[in-house]
Specification:
There is one protein chain. The protein has 368 residues and is α/β, with parallel strands linked by helices. 39% of the residues lie in helices and 14% in strands. The two termini are 21 Å apart. Bound molecules: pyridoxal-5'-phosphate. Pyridoxal-5'-phosphate binds at residues 59-61, 85-86, 88-89, 131, 157, 159-160, 181, 183, 193, 195.
Length: 368
């Protein structure tokens, strides 16, 4: 039995006619840049996310970059970010000229360790960027409390966590802003790249809208240096259709996670969801002894899996100038050796999930 890590064709098939009609309409109108398609999608996703504003941008990375630029963060500033995340979180900080300041993670949730944030704050700190890894939110009560006490902005990296909530409050509801990605592996997947900034503040929203258009306040008058961070109309119509199905897909991801939780042997450590959190399970990530061997074993059986992430950010070559050393962030470094993401996409059958679980259990039983 083949079980790919992700198969987007099975999601596309039932939506094909609906999406093709919408794409054809854009092609007939030849209105590709912003316009009514992007505005309609922004309105719907803002409502879905219980946020006043939504600004469609070119990618999740650009959502982060644009948010940092809207806060005038740059050289001489510091932004706190977990050391175990996708590169884009810290890459966006560094591209503004600011310094990413890394913090270790909580071993159970893989999210930023709230107890280590205050130690990382200096007079140069301007913002905290919690990352809601794999689909569940970092502890926002504590993060917002610390940020409030130190006068810091909070930029949520919710690229893997669209629709996630904590004690019934959704990502973006309480912070400076929340950044989403529509990269094809995310829960709401574009036909290419796309991203979005959610926020509550009218001025912040307006600034992001300028910045995505080269800082243009009116045509060819530029009050800020921005970039070309726009979301394509073609992507917006695809995303607007898919948004209607998102909750149904997330429910299936949760059901799949429950099956793994039931069927996987205690030889591996299953995901821990913090109390109050509702995970959208963008990834189902286990910790396992002899991770590379078990991954090889799964590959031989036709089962896809992935390592998110093999190298913590302080040990990435490009961040060598920050002086990171092995052993500096032991929890993240151990996670990098043990994590393995299993197929969790909505359309998986029970048989496929059973086969993945059985195969992992067989590996540990055989004690290969
Ligand atoms: C995917 C992702 C990003 C970047 O999003 P892109 O749309 O690929 O630019 C940033 N942070 C995290 C945690 C992500 O998972």
């Amino acid at each position: 039995m083949k079980v790919p890590l992700l198969d987007l064709t099975v999601q596309y098939q039932p939506l094909k006619a609906e999406i093709e009609a919408a794409v054809h309409k854009v092609m007939d109108n030849q209105t590709f840049i912003l316009g009514p398609a992007v505005a309609a999608f922004e309105e719907h996703i803002a409502k879905y996310s219980r946020c006043r504003h939504a600004v469609g941008v070119s990618s999740g990375t650009d959502a982060l970059l644009c948010s940092l630029m809207a806060l005038d963060i740059g050289p001489g500033d510091e932004v706190i970010v977990p050391v175990f995340t996708f590169f884009g979180s810290a890459g966006a900080i560094a591209r503004t000229g600011a310094k990413p300041v890394f913090v270790d993670i909580d071993p159970d949730t893989f999210n930023i360790d709230i107890h280590q944030i205050e130690n990382a704050i200096t007079p140069q700190t301007r913002a905290i960027m919690p990352v809601h890894l794999f689909g569940q939110m970092a502890r926002m009560d504590a993060i917002l409390e610390i940020a409030g006490r130190h006068g810091l902005a909070v930029i949520e990296d919710a690229c893997q966590a669209i629709g996630s909530s904590q004690n019934s409050q959704m990502t973006g509801e309480r912070s400076t802003c929340s950044c989403l990605s529509f990269y094809p592996s995310k829960n709401l997947a574009a036909f290419g790249d796309g991203g979005l900034i959610l926020c509550q503040d009218d001025t912040f929203d307006q600034t992001c809208r300028y910045l995505r258009m080269h800082g243009e306040s009116k045509r060819y008058y530029h009050n800020k240096i921005g970039g070309n961070f726009r979301l394509d109309a073609l992507q917006a119509v695809v995303l607007d259709i898919k948004l209607k199905y998102l909750d149904g897909w997330v429910a299936k991801r949760r059901k799949n996670a429950a099956l793994y939780n039931e069927w996987l042997s205690p030889a591996v450590q299953k995901p821990t969801i913090d109390t109050g959190n509702t995970s959208v399970y963008n990834q189902y990530v286990i910790r396992c002894p002899r991770r590379d061997d078990v991954q090889r074993f799964l590959t031989e059986k036709g089962i896809g899996s992935a390592i998110y992430y093999p190298v913590p950010l302080h040990l990435q070559e490009c961040f060598g100038y920050l002086g990171g050393q092995p052993g500096q962030f032991p929890v993240a470094e151990q996670a990098c050796r043990e994590v393995l993401a299993l197929p969790i996409y909505p359309e998986l059958s029970q048989e496929q999930i059973g086969f993945v679980a059985e195969s992992i259990n067989e590996f540990y039983k055989g004690n290969r």
